[in-house]
């Protein structure tokens, strides 16, 4: 089974083209049917790139359903440890011998071209299923699918919606990109007809989904190695919105989202939320209740329908929480269910996750890897009452670093101290000629180290009482956070 390479051509069709969305729907429905038929007849699956946060919840669900799973990845980490604890054999490094006995391969989009396991599988005639295809199949099994998209805030909002629906008794299936403490994992099979899914736009993954509700938090210029431009990103979100069977729930305060959905107003039911008084659900009475935690009121049709308080820091999370509340209201949840969900949610894994305090220094870790995310995360940290904020950042992919170099410098400049690591190339080779030193030159007073051990030693020696040291990035920078925390005890 091949990856749907025609998608890049779809993006060149006129916005709003009926032919465009019909082709997408027909192709992806056919893809889901093929995956469904295939999974009926086989039991042994090999995951290539099994350690990714997007792969883990799928692994959890299929493992629970009785599939025999093996996997491989290039770097060890927490998710691989969790998979091994489930009894799943995982090999570090990609080699054709890893797929022995597999009846099908599940592949992440983050693989380098020429992966030996994929090449060997095709040579042997073993089906290769893209992660996007199997995710589309999983969502197609549910009548009420809630798919949460956006350049930023997907994991937090998906987690908030899942928490609310669990308290409401809907027993949802969940597929989320960060560990949700309430379910002690990244996914759950559920027992009803509702699934809540984090919907990622990278390589048009979310166009495989079958959403009843398409939630759009924001649209920003990211993954430009694939989309080419902001316009390319917007076109992809338009296609995602068109897939909604019931409603699109969208942020009216985000200009790019408003611009994107102007192409389908009248064709789809759009439910707007935001501080804009023209929104269907209006956010008012925003109050900082202390340590960058906020409360707000939500209104509809000129009436106050509820006041809500959050247990997670950051003013930006008001919009994430409003999206969750609106989605919950539209699915029959009560105000009480929503507040219970908010009260239970203290953050997902790697989303402003506080490791603890030692010698008066607080250490935290966050997944922020785009300039906009870094800026809001550091701004939230600034409101928490610390003397100094230390940003420890691992750039991810050479293309993003090159394209957004000055934007990264500007957002990291919000911090009082900046420490940088080598760029983590992931699926890319450095054909862009960009290096961490290019970023250092743009951030006065910043330093960089090639090894996490040196990063940790520098931070532990120099951070002072009532400082916050926060690691940032979507790679393995969380390992540096733990090293910093350990060295503070020495």
List keywords for this structure.
single chain, 490 residues, alpha/beta, Rossmann fold, UDP-N-acetylmuramoyl-L-alanine:D-glutamate ligase, Protein-Tyrosine Phosphatase, Chain A, 3 domains, ten-stranded mixed beta sheet, six-stranded mixed beta sheet, 21 strands, globular
How would you characterize this protein structure?
This protein is of the alpha/beta class. The protein folds into three domains: 7-131, NAD(P)-binding Rossmann-like Domain (Rossmann fold, 3-Layer(aba) Sandwich), CATH 3.40.50; 142-344, Mur-like, catalytic domain (UDP-N-acetylmuramoyl-L-alanine:D-glutamate ligase, 3-Layer(aba) Sandwich), CATH 3.40.1190.10; 353-487, Alpha-Beta Complex (Protein-Tyrosine Phosphatase, Chain A). Helix content is 37%, strand content 23%. The chain contains 18 helices and 21 strands. The strands form three sheets. Strands 8-7-9-6-10-11-12-13-14-15 form a ten-stranded mixed sheet, with helices on both faces. Strands 16-17-21-18-19-20 form a six-stranded mixed sheet, sandwiched between helices. A five-stranded parallel sheet has the order 3-2-1-4-5, with helices on both faces. Helix 3 (56-64) links the parallel strand 1 (44-48) and strand 2. Helix 2 packs across helix 6 (131-140) and helix 13 runs parallel beside helix 15. The radius of gyration is 22 Å and the shape is globular.
């Amino acid at each position: 089974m091949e990856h749907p390479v025609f998608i890049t051509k779809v993006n060149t069709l006129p916005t709003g083209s009926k032919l465009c969305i019909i082709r997408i729907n027909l192709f992806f429905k056919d893809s889901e049917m093929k995956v469904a038929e295939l999974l009926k007849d086989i039991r042994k699956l090999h995951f290539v790139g099994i350690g990714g946060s997007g792969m883990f919840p799928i692994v959890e669900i299929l493992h629970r359903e009785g599939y025999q799973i093996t996997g491989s990845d290039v770097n060890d980490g927490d998710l691989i440890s969790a998979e091994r604890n489930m009894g799943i054999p995982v090999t570090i490094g990609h080699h054709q011998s890893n797929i022995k006995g597999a009846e099908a391969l599940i592949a992440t989009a983050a693989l380098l071209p020429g992966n030996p396991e994929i090449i060997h599988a095709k040579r042997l005639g073993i089906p290769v299923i893209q992660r996007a295809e199997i995710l589309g199949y999983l969502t197609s099994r549910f009548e009420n699918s809630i798919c949460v998209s956006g350049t930023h805030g997907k994991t937090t909002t998906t987690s908030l919606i899942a928490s609310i629906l669990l308290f409401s008794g809907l027993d949802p299936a969940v597929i989320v990109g960060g560990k949700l403490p309430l379910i002690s994992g990244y996914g759950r099979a559920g027992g009803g007809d509702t699934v809540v899914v984090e919907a990622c736009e990278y390589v048009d993954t979310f166009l495989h989904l079958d959403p009843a509700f398409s939630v759009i938090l924001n649209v920003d210029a990211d993954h430009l190695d694939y989309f080419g431009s902001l316009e390319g990103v917007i076109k992809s979100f338009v296609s995602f919105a068109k897939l909604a069977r019931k409603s699109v729930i969208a942020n009216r305060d985000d200009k790019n989202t408003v611009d994107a959905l102007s192409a389908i107003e009248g064709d789809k039911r759009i439910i707007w939320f935001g501080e804009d008084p023209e929104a269907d659900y209006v956010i008012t009475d925003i109050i900082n209740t202390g340590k960058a935690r906020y409360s707000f009121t939500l209104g509809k049709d000129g009436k106050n329908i509820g006041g809500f308080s959050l247990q997670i820091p950051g003013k930006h999370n008001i919009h994430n929480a409003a999206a969750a509340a609106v989605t919950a209201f539209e699915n029959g949840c009560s105000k009480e269910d929503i507040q219970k969900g908010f009260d239970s949610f203290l953050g997902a894994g790697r989303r402003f996750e506080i490791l603890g305090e030692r010698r008066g220094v607080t250490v935290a870790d966050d997944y922020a890897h785009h300039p906009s995310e870094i800026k809001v995360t550091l701004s939230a940290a600034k409101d928490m009452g610390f003397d100094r904020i230390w940003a420890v950042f691992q750039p991810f992919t050479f293309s993003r670093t090159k394209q957004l170099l000055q934007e990264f410098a500007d957002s990291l400049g919000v911090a009082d101290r900046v420490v940088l690591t080598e760029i983590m190339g992931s699926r890319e080779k450095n054909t862009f000629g960009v290096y961490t030193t290019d970023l250092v030159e743009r951030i006065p007073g910043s330093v960089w180290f090639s090894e996490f051990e040196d990063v940790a030693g520098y931070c532990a020696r120099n951070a002072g009482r009532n400082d916050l040291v926060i690691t940032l990035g979507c790679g393995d920078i969380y390992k540096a956070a733990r090293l910093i925390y350990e060295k503070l005890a020495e």
